Amino acid sequence: MTALMGLSSRLKVAKLHLITDVRAEQGDFRDFVVEALQGGVDVLQVRDSAASQEEFLEAVAMAQSVALQLNATVAVGQRLDLADRFQADVAHVGAAGESVDEARSRLPEHSLVGQSVHDSERLSASSADYLFVGPVFGGSLDGVTFPGLRLVREAARRHPLPAHDATPWFAVGGITRENLGQVIEAGALRVAVSSAINQAADPRAAASELKQQLLDAWNANPDMKDFALKSFGGGQGLKFITQP
Q1: Where are the beta strands (DSSP E) in the chain?
Q2: Does the pLDDT at position 29 exceed 80?
Q3: Euclidean distance between CA atoms 39 and 33, whole angstroms
Q4: pLDDT digits (tens, 9 = 90+) for 55-83
């Protein structure tokens, strides 16, 4: 189980969520995780349909070991059978995958479940503990047009920050350092990324640059400090800091 902070509190103030495979080709998973988390990643989701069960579980265990030292959270992405075996703190299901209720029935009581949503109907109907909203950029997939910034704006209306009871959500899909400003302007203060960090020559620097943009957006809203304090039950010792 995640130590030091409650999962729900940690999730509410999370800003940068990274989705990564087990990096079998690079063979540098642990080093990559260390660099990404030290750069400012709050939640690291391991998602790799090509990895064997052993490879996947080994990677998740390794990520969890690093995350515990760096006050971060690890999620198991779209492999509920392995999230069940690992007794994961956080599991993520796809828009067309297992249901949130099924995930909850197979995980420990303390676990959180996230879900990807691609349209207005799922955005309003999902009972997940947090949402991925998108894809934001990329055009279309299998003939289906991506919802883009329109759905981001709708999520910002339905689940606004700093409303303390709003469902946490992350804009996702093709987000980079160059287009993050558009996403923030549309109302997102949390994002999930993959290639922006996974394909970077310097993962720590890439994560740090993204995190700093998000921190600047949070700090620009005077109500966010009170939101963070309430998220931690008064927030003794909690303060916003800028990335080094």
Answers
A1: 16-20, 43-46, 73-77, 90-93, 112-117, 130-133, 140-141, 144-145, 169-172, 191-193
A2: yes
A3: 10
A4: 999 999 999 999 999 999 999 999 999 99
pTM of the model: 0.92
Each residue of 48-69: b (16+ CB within 10 Å) or e? beebeeeebbebbebbbebbee
d(CA 179, CA 64): 30
pLDDT tens digits along 203-244:
999 999 999 999 999 999 988 888 888 887 654 334 334 443
- Please identify which residue in the block is written with the tokens 């990274």: 18
CB 196 within 8 A of CB 177: yes
CA pair distance 192, 175, nearest whole angstrom: 8
Q: Report the alpha-carbon distance of residue 98 to residue 119 in Å, rounded.
A: 17
Task: Please state the φ and ψ torsions of residue 117, each to the nearest 5 degrees.
Answer: -130, 135
Backbone angles phi, psi at 29, to 5 degrees: -55, -50
